[in-house]
Amino acid sequence: MLYKDIIKELTHIVGKENITTSKEDLICYSYDATNQKFLPDAVVFPKNADEISLILKLANKEGFHVVPRGAGSGFSGGSLPVEGGVVVSLERMNKIMKIDADNLIAIVEPGVVTGELQWAVEDLGLFYPPDPSSLKFCTIGGNVAECAGGPRAVKYGVTKDYVLGLEVVLPTGEIVNTGTQTLKGVVGYDLTKLMVGSEGTLGIVTKIILKLLPLPEATKTILAVFSDMRDAAATVSRIISSRIIPSTLEFMDKNSISCVDDYANMGLPADVEALLLIEVDGDRELIEKQAEGIKKICLDNMAREVRVAGDKREVKQLWQIRRAISPSLAKLKPNKINEDIVVPRSKIPDAIIGVREIAKKYNLTNANFGHAGDGNIHVNIMIDKHVPEGFNQGSDKAEFLRAEKAVKEIFELVLGLGGTISGEHGIGISKMPYIGMELSPTAIDVMKKIKQVLDPKGVLNPGKIFPTL
Question: Is the separation of the CB atoms in 322 and 277 below 8 Å?
């Protein structure tokens, strides 16, 4: 609970129209895509780095917590005010400050919606590749905090590959600029890369310098359907080894396919085990040749059907299959635990089969889809209800406890296959209990020391990533 004098000081910093303590408003900033809820004591809407600096200096003086928030679309709880305090919403800081077509950079504020940046640069013949599935509402600042990826990561990489520099307000209130506006720069430690993916625990990003690319001339989209999941996985490996690097190589398993077909009536075969959605981009003549090569590889690896989109309408139809997955999964259960494991591409069948066996062991419903091109699989354990801590009875609680046990075993499976427990969602609070499964005590200790140096009073986004500080 914040004292009245603290609220008064915050109001003085941001203005009375840019702070709220009403219960109705606080609820709107209490949750994210995990569906867990933690009520903040106040929400403020600063307009620049100077105001955020004053907020953090006040937090250090008065001892309250500060939690930065973008669109609240994260799947790991990184923006949740788990220990109360003040949520700093960055939604007012939503300007595209500069698009430099000569030097292929953009300078943006953290509240810029990812999709809106992409459309703005594409109008100028430029390209910003990172494309998380929430791009129509997630923000660049949140993408930076989580190092977001997306389907195009197989060819173009993830957010960290496009961040050249940052303006960051440190937990103690100092404002620091990291990186450069140039492609090269090795002066001092790479503080930019340190901040990207730090989940809002080391600083609040207030300005981002992004690398852009020329917009590809054309794209070609292909859908391949398989009766055997191992054939689909072999196709993925064969495509990559053939020196064709698709811009997208997406995967869906049997349960995902069934849900999508029921949800959107796509006319997909009912007895298939796997589906690949593949896209190539670049020079028009080259991608026609690549598309034919991919079609042949799919057929050589026992694809039962291959569709090559002939126009924009057909492209839209094929992508509708992929985009319909998340809403369609509600057919199985109303809620889900969504994990974003990554394994070597050749291990995808072992991962999927292993996950299915674990789900069967705990009598759970499961669906898998994701970015096969880089081995990033979204494992969805479908449940009736997320059960809050302290609720200790009923079938919902029993199912949730089984799901938690299954998640731990899935992570053990993934690590045993040479993978990682998170490819793009981050750790936050959802994976915090499992971080020691992947990182050594020494590595965790080094990270904690970095946090302690930058945030000696522990005011910024506490209770995230590490079980204890």
Answer: yes
Percent residues over pLDDT 90 in the chain: 83
Q: Which two tokens stand for residue 203?
A: 């600083």
Please list, in sequence order, all residues whose beta carbon lies within 8 angstroms of the beta carbon of residue 161, skipping any fewer than 6 positions away.
Answer: 211
Residue 71 to residue 67: CA distance in whole angstroms: 13
The per-residue pLDDT for 388 is: 66
Cα angle 339-252-400, degrees, rounded to a multiple of 5? 35
User: For the residues of 160-221, what is the DSSP string, one character each?
Assistant: GGTEEEEEEE-TTS-EEEEE-SSS---SSS-HHHHHTTSTTSS-EEEEEEEE-EEPPSEEEE
Task: Determine the pLDDT at residue 23.
Answer: 96
Whether 305 shows a pLDDT value over 80: the answer reads yes
User: Do the Cβ atoms of 244 and 280 come closer than 8 Å?
Assistant: yes
Mind listing the domains of the chain with CATH numbers?
4-89 (3.30.43.10), 96-214 (3.30.465.10), 218-261+275-322 (3.30.70.2190), 332-428 (3.30.70.2740)
Cα gap 396→450, rounded to integer Å: 40
pLDDT of residue 391: 59
Given a contact cutoff of 8 angstroms between Cβ atoms, the answer to whether 167 and 207 are in contact is: yes
Rounded Cα distance between 418 and 439, Å, is 13
The SS3 of residue 313 is helix
Q: What's the pLDDT score for residue 393?
A: 60
**pLDDT digits 0-9 by tens, 247-275:** 999 999 999 998 988 887 777 777 889 99
How many Å apart are CA 240 and CA 246, to the nearest integer? 8
* 19-49 residue pLDDT tens: 999 999 999 999 999 889 999 999 999 999 9
How far are the Cα atoms of 231, 304, 354, 421 from residue 235, in angstroms, in the given order? 6, 13, 20, 24
**What does the pLDDT read at residue 396?**
82
The token pair at 25 is 């408003």
Burial class (CB in 10 A: 0-12, 13-18, 19+), 219: middle
Tokens of 264: 């959107």
pLDDT at 392: 58
DSSP class per residue in 67-130: EEESSS--SS-TT--TT-SEEEE-TT---EEEEETTTTEEEE-TTSBHHHHHHHHHTTTEE---
Say which residue the tokens 């690590």 belong to.
415
